[in-house]
Amino acid sequence: MAAEEPLVLGIETSCDETGVGIVRGTTLLADAVASSVEEHGRYGGVVPEIASRAHLEAMVPTVQRALDQAGIKASDLDGIAVTAGPGLAGALLVGVSAAKAYAYALGKPLYGVNHLASHICVDQLEHGRLPEPTMALLVSGGHSSLLLTEDITSTVRSLGATIDDAAGEAFDKVARLLNLGFPGGPVIDRYAREGDPAAIAFPRGLSGAKDPAYDFSFSGLKTAVSRWVEAKRRAGEDVPVRDVSASFQEAVVDVLTRKAVRACKDEGVDHLMIGGGVAANSRLRALAQERCDRAGITLRVPRPKLCTDNGAMVAALGAEMVWRDRAPSAFDLSADSSLPVTDTHVPASHDELHRLSE
Ligand SMILES: Nc1ncnc2c1ncn2[C@@H]1O[C@H](COP(=O)(O)OP(=O)(O)OP(=O)(O)O)[C@@H](O)[C@H]1O
Ligand SMILES: [Mg+2]
């Protein structure tokens, strides 16, 4: 392990947020984000070409803003980390190209890291180093997984994942059918606070005795909400948006927390972390706390701003890579839009490392 906590800059461009963060070990120094979310709003989802162009325009000013916030010079850095995948191919490419340029110009090592492992590692900035092992419930716009995390820089085992929609995707689709705009999670969270979670009995996917214990399914729930709302509209009645939001949200977070606590018990793991954009959900946080307290599990959830995409999470994982002496990536690193969750980073091969050191 490195003698001192390393100073690392992280670049995140996997979707519609240009994030640049700077950390020293597990301490957050800067978190600059430029979002193109408003440019996508009228399309009801992220348009890849618009996102890529916005990353290109925002990159240099956002890096400069992060350096100013942290009060450091680029030459002080010990490494540059970047999201190598998964995500939108064109958007990732902008971040990877920028990170290569900075790393090459500054003569610093480059670390291509996994966006999903970064969503887990970001919690180190809030609660210190992750206990090993930690169970991670990763719930975001594109993923819903239970991950047994033995070492966030190298060993993540997938216990289960969604077989159809991701949790965040379900929030976004239900918000669209209620005409609440995009992204759906925050607005449903807000409406749900004034609604009755027991008003409508929506289905809990894959919760039968014979169903896979750790997989998720949210597509049936989305269809059930859609049918219920359509029936109301056909009957000419008002749709009770607050009750629909609260009942839908309850169905999602009930299943997520039950399966996560069960995985902890089955695997004998006493720390659960929840990461990804949906971890910002207030009801998910409250119910997870309640159920973890009852089961004697310590819950770790980063503050909401660190749950959605940001550069600090990438810097956090990069710093952990440096601290643990993990091999850097080669300069021919490419973006991998479907990088598997178990590949925490993209190290250079032995031959490439040899060439680099010559
Ligand atoms: N308070 C909230 N409640 C529920 N969902 C939320 C909340 N805040 C954000 N979300 C959801 O989180 C998702 C965005 O999370 P995140 O930024 O991690 O996703 P992503 O980066 O697009 O996907 P991935 O990380 O899988 O590539 C959106 O689907 C959004 O609706
Ligand atoms: Mg994400």
Describe, in plain words, how this protein is organized in 3D.
The chain is α/β, with parallel strands linked by helices. The chain folds into two domains: 7-122 and 310-357, ATPase, nucleotide binding domain (Nucleotidyltransferase, domain 5); 131-303, ATPase, nucleotide binding domain (Nucleotidyltransferase, domain 5), CATH 3.30.420.40. 44% of the residues lie in helices and 18% in strands. It has 13 helices and ten strands. The protein has helices at 37-40, 48-70, 89-106, 115-121, 124-127, 167-177, 184-192, 219-234, 241-267, 282-295, 304-307, 311-323, 350-357, and strands at residues 7-12, 17-24, 27-35, 79-85, 110-114, 134-139, 144-151, 155-161, 271-275, 298-300. The strands form two sheets. The protein has a five-stranded mixed sheet, sandwiched between helices. Helix 3 (89-106) links the parallel strand 4 (79-85) and strand 5 (110-114). The protein is globular, with a radius of gyration of 21 Å. It starts with 6 loop residues before the first strand and ends with a helix. The model has no long low-confidence stretch (mean pLDDT 96). Magnesium ion is lined by residues 115, 119, 140, 276-277, 309.
